[in-house]
Amino acid sequence: MDTRKLIDVLASEPVPVAAGGLRRRFFIALVVGGAGAFALMLAYLGLRPDLAVVARTPMFWVKLGFPLALLAIALVGAGRLARPGVPLGRAAVAPLVPIGLIWILGVVVLFYLAPGERLAALFGATWKVCPFNITVLSLPAFAAALWVMKGMAPTRPVAAGAFSGLLAGALGATVYCLHCPEMAPPFIGTWYLLGILIPAAAGAALGPRLLRW
Amino acid sequence: MAVQEDRLKDLLVRALDGDGSAYHAFLDALSGLLRAFLGRRLTRLPDDVEDLVQETLLAVHNQRHTYDAALPVTAWVHAIARYKLIDFLRRRAGHEALNDPIEDDDEFLAASDDEPRDARRDLATLLQQLPDRHRLPIVYVKIEGRSVAETAKAIGMSESAVKVGIHRGLKALAALIRK
User: Which has the closest alpha carbon to A6: B44, B12, B51?
Assistant: First the structure.
């Protein structure tokens, strides 16, 4: 088949294509990923019993704000990486902003704590399970975000995989906040971050293999 | 070059609205640009240029839903062509790979070459490898130019199944090329 014939073939009916598909796909991924994480959290971990009480403290919202900010950045970045020819721009470094802020807060908190309380603020009671739990809760969103990317045309598969994983990790961590008893910024800036970076690294590693088109 | 961008954009936007002749003109203009762009990159592999032109046209078609009318067409098609070129060079375990970086999308409009050469790989042969549910809708609607309704009746599928068959079939064809 020569190229002219191929063009005839491609240009014959039916041509029209629905616009606005990307937003819809990401919306579905967020719903599926969020609901999946919530179901996993309820089934294996449970809501923290004092949720209604801590929800009235500012620190709870700071803690929730950290993964939510990363989630918003990941959505923007993944949306750009999904289309050929759209530069990633500032979204490439934007994740450093919430990470920097939580670290500054963490350092300030450590500074004002008595020396004997610092280790407790960093390790809490659950540091051994926190990154693992966040990674598990991110699995539904991980699959959903890669499904979104697979339906688009990422030309930078490593970055596209990493931002898909970041999105999943951030969503998993957001849901994990509803279970997790830890409230210290140094803990959030270390173990939550690690839990979010594990799916991001997995996405970067799998991207070139899974996102070819 | 701005004129070229405007013309391509106008054609593509109309095409995505369902204007088949605008789409034909778009793909025609694009094939010339691709041939020149890829020809400059593959001076040592001239026989592969036409295959890659076809592969990129098919990719542009299959990924047309990823075009956002707020963005320049040139950047979009350049990114697709670049991706397909790099993929091709990797596939041939390219030792003679990229000494020449492929960064500037302005350059994409620098020249056009409208003389197709022979493709080495015959897409018609690849098409034969697709299962009937993909192959028949493509052959009937796309190659023989029958209507979707007519095709649906002739091969005993619903109209939406015919459309899905074409869509998936062209994706499957692109996947066969990558092998």
Answer: B51
Number of alpha carbons in the 13 Å side-chain half-sphere of residue A188:
33
Instruction: Answer for the pair B132, B108: CB distance below 8 angstroms, yes or no.
Output: no
Handedness of CA B147, B153, B156, B157 (dihedral sign): positive
Chain A / chain B CB contacts < 8 angstroms: 116
Q: What are the tokens at A13?
A: 């009916």
Confirm if B1 and B106 have CB atoms less than 8 A apart: yes
| Residue listed under structure tokens 């800036």 | A189
The pLDDT tens digits for B75-114 are 999 999 999 999 998 887 654 545 555 566 667 777 788 7
| pLDDT the model gives residue A21 | 82
Mean residue pLDDT of chain B comes to 86
What are the structure tokens assigned to B92, written together?
């041939």
Sign of CA dihedral B87, B89, B92, B94: negative
Q: Rounded to whole angstroms, what are the CA distances from A143 to A30, A207, B66?
A: 11, 12, 20
Least Cα distance to B15 among A31, A68, A116, A10 occurs for: A10
Using alpha carbons, list the distances in angstroms from residue B66 to A22, A80, B78, B172, B175. 8, 10, 14, 18, 18
How much is the pTM? 0.87
- Taking only Cα atoms into account, the Rg of chain B, rounded to an integer number of angstroms, comes to 17
In this complex, which of B23, B71, B87 lies closest to A85 when CB atoms are compared?
A: B71
Per-residue b or e along B53-72, where b marks 16 or more CB atoms closer than 10 Å to that residue's CB = bbbbbbbbbbbbbbbeeeee
| CB < 8 Å from A in window 18-77 of B | 18-21, 23-24, 27-28, 31, 50, 53-54, 57-59, 61-69, 71-72, 75-77
Confidence of residue A18 (pLDDT cuts 50, 70, 90): low
State the virtual CA torsion across B14, B16, B20, B21 in degrees, nearest 10.
30
Say how far apart CA B56 and CA B86 lie, in whole Å: 12
- Write b or e for each residue in B145-177: b if 16 or more Cβ atoms lie within 10 A of its Cβ, otherwise e: ebebeebbeebebeeeebbebbbbbbbbbbeeb
Environment class of B95 (CB within 10 Å of its CB; exposed 0-12, middle 13-18, buried 19+): exposed
Distance from the Cα of B130 to chain A's closest Cα (Å) equals: 15
